[in-house]
Structures are given as C-alpha cells and as structure tokens.
Design a protein that fits this description.
The complex is a heterodimer of chains A (about 350) and B (about 325).
Chain A lengths: L12 H4 L6 H21 L2 H27 L7 H18 L5 H20 L7 H21 L12 E2 L4 E2 L2 E2 L7 H23 L2 H11 L1 H6 L4 H28 L1 E2 L1 H4 L2 H14 L4 H25 L4 H22 L3 H15 L5
Antiparallel strand pairs in A: 1-4, 2-3
Helix pairs in contact in A: 2-7, 3-7, 3-8, 3-10, 3-12, 3-13, 4-5, 4-6, 4-10, 5-10, 7-10, 8-10, 12-13, 13-14, 13-15
Chain B lengths: L2 H34 L6 H16 L6 H8 L13 H24 L7 H23 L16 H11 L7 H23 L1 H11 L1 H6 L4 H27 L8 H12 L4 H21 L1 H4 L7 H12 L14
Helix pairs in contact in B: 1-7, 1-8, 1-10, 1-11, 1-12, 2-4, 2-5, 2-10, 4-10, 7-8, 7-10, 8-10, 11-12, 11-14
Classes of the chains: A mainly alpha (about 350), B mainly alpha (about 325).
Chain lengths: ~350, ~325
Amino acid sequence: MFYREAGDFKTSYAEDNQTFPIKFDRYRYYFVLVVALLVIPFVISDYWANAVLLPFLIYAIAAIGLNILTGYCGQVSLGTGGFMAVGAYATYKLMTAFPWMDMVSVTLLSGLVTAIVGVLFGLPSLRIKGFYLAVATLAAQFFLVWLFNRVPWFYNYSASGQISAPERSMFGMAVTGPNAEVWVKYLFCLFFVILLSWVARNLTRGSVGRQWMAIRDMDIAAEIIGVNPLKSKLTAFAISSFFVGVAGALLFSVYLGAVEVGEAFGIQKSFLVLFMIIIGGLGSIFGSFAGAAFMVLLPVFLKILGVDMLGWATDIVAHIQLIVVGGLIVFFLIVEPHGLAQLWRLTKEKLRLWPFPH
Amino acid sequence: MPDNLIFAMEVTLNGLMTGVMYALVALGFVLIYKASGIFNYSQGVMALFAAMTLVGIQEGRVPFSHLINAIFGTSLHNFAWNSVPALLAILLTVAVMVLFAWAVQKFVFGHLVGQEPIILFMATIGLAYFLEGMADLMWGSEIRTLDVGLPQGLNTVIDDTTYGWFGYGFFIDNLDIVASIVAALLVAGLVAFAQYTKQGRAMRAVADDHQAALSVGISLNFVWILVWSLAGFVALVAGIMWGSKSGVQFSLSLIALKALPVLMLGGFTSIPGAIVGGLIIGVGEALFEFAVGPMIGGATENWFAYVLALIFLVFRPQGLFGEKIIERV
C-alpha cells in the first residue's frame, strides 16, 4: 500500500540513481537518522551505551570493513583482530605523540595507517587464493599481536604492557578518558558510522564496487573483461583495513579506554566480526549492521535470560552462548546463506507486492 | 664440537618431535578435505572434545552435570564407578566420535551438499564453536590431566648415549617418542586402509570424483560419515598425545591453528605433505626461536609458522605436495 514505486516520479538522473528509490525507504532512513541523532543522545544511559550501543556502532564499522573485503571482493580474511590492533595502537601513538591533534583526525589517520598495513598483508592475495589466503591472513593476525606485545615502543615502554587512552576533547567536551560522558562518546562513534557507511554504500554501488564483485564472482573472468585484479584487490584490502582500523581505534580510545592486545584483539575478535557478516549477510551494508546488532545483543540477551532470570552460573551461560552462536552460524548457512539481509530483502519484496502474492 | 651446534641439534630433534604432533592434527584435516572438499576448521576442537570425553569417561563423570544441577537443583557429579579402564574409555570415546561424525553428516553437511567451499569452511567454524561449548557444558571447563599410561619424562637412553658422544645429554621426552611411533603407525594404518580395503577404495574414489563415485554405486553419505569418523579417531589420538603432554584444556583446540600452516606448506590434499609440512614447521620454528628469538623478544613460535607458510606460498601456491591448481573460466 505505502511501499510502492508508484506515484513517486523521478524527474532527474540524480533522483533516478538515488540510494533509496522507494519513498518509504527514504523516509525510514531519515527517521532512523533523526532518532539516532536527536533522540537517543538525550535518553541514553550508561548501561545501554556500554552494553549495547557503543559496541554495536563500533562493530558495525568493523563488519562493514570486513564485508567489503569478504562479501564484496571475495577475499576471506581472518586477520581482522590484528588490523583492529593496528588501528588501536596507531591511535595511541598519535594521541601521545601529538596531544594537540583532534580526535577525528587521529582516528582517520589511524585508519590510514591500518590501510597501509592492510595493503602490505594483502599483497600475497594476488598469488594465493581461497583457503590458502584465509590461512595466510592468520599470519597478519598472529604477527601483529605479537609485534604489539613484544616491541615496547608501541606501548610507550609502560610497565604493564597495556595502552590506555589519555583524555582528549572535541569542542570542549571530553571524548576519551574516564571523564567522557556517554552521549558524547555515542555521538562521536555515530559520526564515524554515518560517514563511513555512506562512503561504503556509495563505493560498493559504483565502479569500484562492481570491480570487486567481478573479482569475487570469478577473478580470471574479471581479468579478461578488463578488471585490473592488482588494483581492485589491493583497494579492497586498503579500504577494508581502513574501516577495520577506525573500528579498532574507536574500540580502544572511546569504548574500552585501556587495552591489552592479546585479550582485546585476539583471534576471537576476527571470528566475531566474521560471524557478524555471515549472520548479517555477505555483500550487504545493511547486513553488516544487522549482524553486528545480532552478535552484540545475543550475549546480552542470553545473560539476562540465563543469569538474571533462571539464576544459572555465568560459566554455564557462557558455554550455552558458544553452542547457540555455533548452532546459529550453521543454521543460517543451511537455511539462509545470505543472512539477515536476505530476509530483509524478501520482506521488502513481499511488502512491495502486498496484498497480492505475486 | 661447539656448544651452540650441539644445542641446535637438540633443538632440531625436539622440533622434529613437535612437528610430528602438528602433523597428527594436520592429518585429520587432510582426510576430510580430500574426501569431501570441506576444510574442517573444527579439527582442533574435535581433538579437545575427544580428549575431554576420554577424561570424563575415565573419571566416571556424569555428562552435563553442571547443567542438570543448575536446572533441577541436584548435585550430581560422578557415577558410582569412579574409574574406567583406559582401553574401555578409549573405545567408548571412539564410539562417541563416530556418533558425532554421523550427526555432523546428518544435520549439517547433508544439507550443505553442493555449496561453495567457503560456505562449508564457515560452517565448520560454527561447528567448532558449537563443539567447544558442548565439550565445556558436558564435562565442565576446568583443566584436567589425562593419563592413559603413556610413558613420560626424560628418555634416559638418549640422554646417556648423547652424553657419551658429545659430553652433553639431549633432553627428549618419552611421550614425544611415543607420539612419533604412534603417528607413523597411524599413517601406515591409514594408507593400508585406503589401499587394501573396500571402504578405503570407496574413499579414494570419492576423493577423486564425487559424481563418478556416485555413478558406480558408492554411497557418498556413508563415505563422508566414514571419513568424519576417521578424522574423529585421528583427533582422539592427537587429543591423547597433546592432552598427556600439556593437560586437557581450551588451549588444546588452538593446536588446530598451528596445523593450518602445516597444511599450507604440505598442500591440503597430501598425507605425506602433512607429515613433511609438520616436520618443517616444527624444526623451523624451534630453530628460529633458538637462533633469532632472543634478539627480537622471544615467543616467535606464535607467528613464525604462518609467516613461513605465507612466504612459501607466494612461490608455490599449492604447497609442497598439493595438486596443481588449475583454473578455468
């Protein structure tokens, strides 16, 4: 009824090419933006911010990053945790070396550093494919974590080997450090989420994105029709790592505050982000958000259900969580290999035709 | 002979032994990959699960006791019998692994036939998580010691002999020697099984070509269950070896990650490749840690294997013994 192209007349090419061609989608998008920007900051509480919203926003960025590489360009990476660590340590070094620099520049520069590292580890992807590449990215994961653990320069020779974010402000309000208000942190992360998802959405529907998808579907065929595999694989690695680096930077500076590299950026983190994009949907920006929301909410939900309502011990709930996550991954791969995003697509398609079945 | 050289020799020998242990895990990967094209990430967790089940049965624990206690408020822990003979426990564990193989085929990969390899790979990651949670839920997550009566500790014969030769006794663990012998027997057994039995031939046929095998009347389903059971058995052997060496705990499942570079080096489809790859990685990382480790902060064995495999693959993308990758449009 309301979800139709009919009656929404496009009178210019720009309108014809817009991201949300259906009016309802457009208004829904504006509505989400208004709620996120103008409502949530006023009602946000410490618990919601720390347990749900901040991790959701940060992991959404990481998931979009990995989705660009794995979902759009078809290069499976298990090194996400390592690249997030690069972002975090780059932020730390920049924050301590240039105290006057504002946090937005610091975060974007950390992303840039990660992009360079990502390209370095992406170089073998030109020779190595499939599983071999997935395992090769583990080299990045383990080497980078080891590097940040063992080379004291990266953690400024601190005795504990940890890095902790000093206090930095934007517009006179603390963004990082213990005195930062949650709504400031929230808005700071939200700014990056909106910026980066806008970039990602437009990259993936442009010529770069089409090249990635051609490489994903079959790289030899793509090469024959004139896609440069070197260029498109390395741009995918660079842009993906940029996103992942920004996510790592935010995770460290805004969300966690203090980080021990093996614990925060271990192999588990790589799998977490990979699960987000599998459950959310490979090759979909919306899917990255859905997957991130799912994987952030699931432990919270299970904890409320198991520990608070049924009164079970936390370790049993943690084990059940592993089973549920593993089972869901398998379930999704069997039932809907394209993830939550596909369910969303089907719903929209049904809505468009409603009340008729075909 | 200079001291450093003697130390290096000892390090090399120990590296070889560790390499055998890596190869044990890698073997399970190769079996499944050859027969079904599934890259089974959960092999390491299968080793953990098998070892925990073995310990649990040996100690006569009640499965899921923590969960049952939490739901019904009981305090179950052990069955009336407190210890089960090692051999019986091993047999029961094998039965559990066969059951697991059947369940995996029935509920997971039976539904995923014909999917892309990468989807199958991710499904095994899900399986690994599931199995890890299941192992903890069934048997509890505390660290156990596993003892099935394997000899452990310093091998005095080698110690004395090398002392006689070099004036310095090499420290070689008995368990490592046993592991090497077991690994050799296992490989010989697997090769004999694949060459001389009907089921083994069916297995090789499936590995060659699914459709051709199907058309001559081989049941793919049966072969896949067989292969998963064999991989489960290999996982049990690896679990016993690693479990006796360093206790049964979560880190046991991480040896799977160590087996990955071994596989890359040896090639995913080759059993000899898994052995040779394991030895190269074992010796390589031990020597690297010995020679270069102290200069750059130590603990290089965390990443050396991966970087070695990565560099190696750039020059030979299919690994040492892997089948040549032919791509067509």
